[in-house]
Amino acid sequence: MNRFPKAANVDFHSPLDLSKAAAAVLDDEGRIAGWGSSAQRLLGHSPEDVLGQSATQLLVATSGRRLSGLCKADKPRSAVLDLCCRDGRTLRAAVTFSPLAHRGVAATVVVAADLTALRSWEAQLALLQGLATESPVGLTIFDTDMRVVWGNVSTDLELAGIAHYVGRPAADLFPEGEFVSRHHPPDEDQVMERVLTTGEPIIGMHYRGRAPVDPVREHVWSCSYHRLLDARGEPLGVFEESLDITDRYRAQERLSLLVRAGKRIGASLDVRRTAAELADVAVPQLADEVLVDLPPAVIEGRQPPTGSAPGHRLLRMHGRTPEEFRTSPVSYPPSSPQALSLATSRPVVDALPPEAPGEVRPDASHSCLFVPLLTRDAVLGLATFRRTSNPDPFGAEEQTLAVELAERAAVGIDNARRYTSQHEAALVLQRSLLPQHLPEQSAVDVAYRYLPADSRVGVGGDWFDVIPLSGARVGLTVGDVVGHGVHAAATMGRLRATVRTLALLDLDPAELLTRLDDLVAQDAESSENDGLSDEALGVTCLYAIYDPVGGRCVWASAGHPPPIVADSSGSVAWSALAPGPPLGLSGLPYENVELNLSSGSVVAFFTDGVVEDRRTDIDSGIDRLAHVLTWQRCPVEELCDRALSTLPPGPQADDATLLLVRTRQLDADHVADLELPPDPAMVAHARTYTERQLATWGLSDLSFTAALVVSELVTNGIRYTTGPVMLRLIRDRCLLCEVSDMAHTAPHLRRARRDDEGGRGLFLVAQMSQRWGTRYTSSGKTIWAELPVS
Q1: What is the rounded CA–CA span in Å between residue 697 and residue 550?
Q2: pLDDT above 50 (res 150)
Q3: CA 104, CA 161: separation in Å to the nearest integer?
Q4: What is each CA distance from 734 to 471, 472, 500, 786, in whole angstroms?
Q5: Confidence band for 240, pLDDT divided at 50, 70 and 90
Q6: Total-model pTM
Q7: Among residues 74, 106, 166, 488, which one has the fewest Cβ atoms lying within 10 Å of its Cβ?
């Protein structure tokens, strides 16, 4: 289909051409002697109307006076005359009078055309002349063999003379040029062959090359190709129109590069990766290679050194990706352009950069641009933009572009440095707040693993703890603070200390979580306006107490996943009881869950980072951990390693904390129980029983101290209760003496006056034991004391 349906109406013949103009012949007296059909079409008069008549009848009165002079001229003359049409109109026409003498007969040939049509034709002719001589658009005509036929002045200037190329193939014009645009034939001959064959023009292809008139600088042209046809419609060849769009093209490239830089540079919060991002963006569009030199302090996340001494040693980044990165030391002599750039904080262009110590310059280097990495009045390092294959020097606009890229990279590197510093501080804080060494317990065998989140995410708020309790029991806790960073780590440390403090009060798990919930809610209310309360409102915690005397475990959860238990036979169970609400929501109760664990059972306490991942759901993670626990006969340290080895590869999106506990039960011969009626005479019996039991255990050297402690505790129990009193002796890492009664009144330690008859019992107990305390039970209270075993 013809893309230009009105192209047939375009006619470049002159309106005064004899094939188109109105023609007539006048005799020597000015009468019309000949009248052509074209004259009839122009004015409407038939030959019968005008032949033999004076030509003045066809002229408006003002034009008639000039006719005589025009007919008697001895050479052709032209004039603008007003002619009378048959329909009464007046036609302003361009008229040419040509004298004609033949065999003594004088006559004049008159040719006339509509003046408006003539002026339009002259404008078209002037347009063609302007395109050929003054237009910045290069026009080149090729014949059907794709050889140069003609070029306008613009083409002549680009080629430094079109005459040298006439008759030569198109490939000779720009031997090293290439099309930048895609989805078209790759070379110019194939492009023109397609246009000749199909007749369809190809518009707006971008062509890159070096013009003969400017061989140093690379140019880009927008080229279009059209087929040329003769009067019969046969192909004459192809004409090419080309416009130098180098500046516009490079401006678009710079804009696209800046857009890409805005998306890429500094998105990783990693110093090395940011350096690689700068290289990825700038190569190959701006430079063939980009090197980034940074002080070791910046790479490590510390404050950059003050000043920019030229001889300051830096580390050079190598590799395009962080996986390929390696660093090598580099320093600049005081007279080097690198030192000048750092000293002046300005970019420096060097066509042939000198070799620095430790640096090998490629022989092919044509130009280097050194740009300091500046931010907040500090010099972070130096970026080197190097050209090896591109011989063009860095121009002013390219220097401006490199500076802007370096500024973006400097901001990204500084942000990454600050983040690295904060992340390291948070990591140190978090590790200092987590248990450094878990105490050995007779009740459990413990192993743990803590994996911090990926550095891009930041340190999280996971915690765990193993807390020795009275009666050889042990408290086990694991928790998670939503969020990352220093505040999450600090919140974690505060909560872990609070849990330990409440645990030492011998509260049961549900009561402990209730009190912890109140404290978290109060903290949230007091910090509503400081922007730091979000983490406190996203705290989960699980607390459990294991008693090795009877193998009983009690736990409660505040929004935390329940533990997974593998008994001594290898069967794995997961609690069906839904956890209570996270801490800080208040108003909803927490429930205790009781388990009877056989000796050798393995209990897994974990945070969601162990079982949940962006690529897998939590159910799959729990199944994976449960499968590992079926190997419960393995040492708990090995089980920990097995569990973490099943985590999906790649960076951790959240902290992962795993606490594995293998339970033990105290042997029956290590526990002695004695029930005593509420009779003061039973104090002596309790003392005697204690001495005998210690003798059986081989602890006779503790008999006096233990008998004194037991007698004081039993005396208090009998004095303030109405029911029976229970004495329990436990031989563990220390000797535990416990006296339980049915009273809920807590005893108070006080200093008795000299004249007081009593009140010294608990004071003696405190002085003779290494620890003592009181815990409440559902039926009363238990007072306990620990005596060291030598």
Answers
A1: 20
A2: yes
A3: 54
A4: 10, 9, 21, 6
A5: very high
A6: 0.59
A7: 74
